[in-house]
Design brief:
By secondary structure, the chain is α+β, with helices and mostly antiparallel strands. It folds into 2 domains: 191 residues, Butyryl-CoA Dehydrogenase, subunit A, domain 3 (Up-down Bundle), CATH 1.20.140.160; 118 residues, Roll (Nuclear Transport Factor 2, Chain: A). Helices cover 48% and strands 15% of the residues. The chain has 13 helices and 8 strands. The protein has a 6-stranded mixed β-sheet. One of its GO terms (molecular function) is DNA-directed RNA polymerase activity. This is RNA polymerase sigma factor. Belongs to the sigma-70 factor family. ECF subfamily.
Length: 334
Amino acid sequence: MTDARLQGADEATFIAAVRAEDTARFALLTERHRRALQVHCYRMLANYEDSQDLTQETFLRAWNKRESFDGRAALRTWLYRIATNACLDFLEKRNHRTPLPAGLPGGGSEVRYLQPYPDRMLPEDPHESAVARETIELAFIVAVQHLPPRQRAVLILRDVLGWPAATTADALELSVASVTSALQRARVTMREQLPDRRLDWRTPATHELSDDERATVKAWVDAHERNDLDGLLSLMREDLRFAMPPDPGVWVTAKSAMDAWVSGGFGGPGYDDWRCIVTTVNRMPAVVEYLRTPDHPVYRLFAIDVLHIVDGKVAELTGFPATDKPWLGLPPTL
């Protein structure tokens, strides 16, 4: 059976469920799209908790608008339309959800509301998962936040999901000309934000880490557990970019990042007994840090560092406090 016929069966079953007020069947048909919709909301909002909330809001709106579904569009498309507009409504009420100046020379801007996204919550469909590879990486998520919300929606619908201009225009209640213009402006901004990255996001990219990336992550863990600050410094590019949202500040250069860590106590008494585990978030290598202090017998969850590695060196490092993010599924102690 072809995808089109399967999709048609879904639409017919959905319409029948609506007519029968069958809430169980309605939930079954919409729930299978949860992961894809949540990733979509995350691209729009850069925040895992908000993406969860807005996905739930999408299902509530879908139920309230169920009579409006006539089957001319795919159920999936209809749900994406609702999710996109729910995110736009959210952003309209949240004026603080824009990048802020970093406050440091050369620091650019920072996204303090940024949160990591657990790989285990990505869509299970292999093609969707492959396409998500670069559009879930932190660099893309941060870059897209620099777009005004409606441009952001246009770029994601057109260049990530591959929607036609007319479908995008209908979803956002815009003209096709307005969608085309918004997409052109959005692409210019994305090229400025991601000058060294490819911009063909619909082409699947590999999921596997390269041998160089694996070696760098292993060396990073080894140096961290030995409390070898010089070793860590040697694994960073000189022009490293470091941020740790929601804390303010973006540090540019490896030396300035290391100076900031040391001034915060890293490597000194009470911050010198570490164990690490390796995982992935946002389809990127990540090192989870556990700290043992003199007054505690076990290593306790401390932070997670997400690494972007280029030619065997860490080019970008985004650290997140880990204890307040249960959705990452990390063990609290080692």
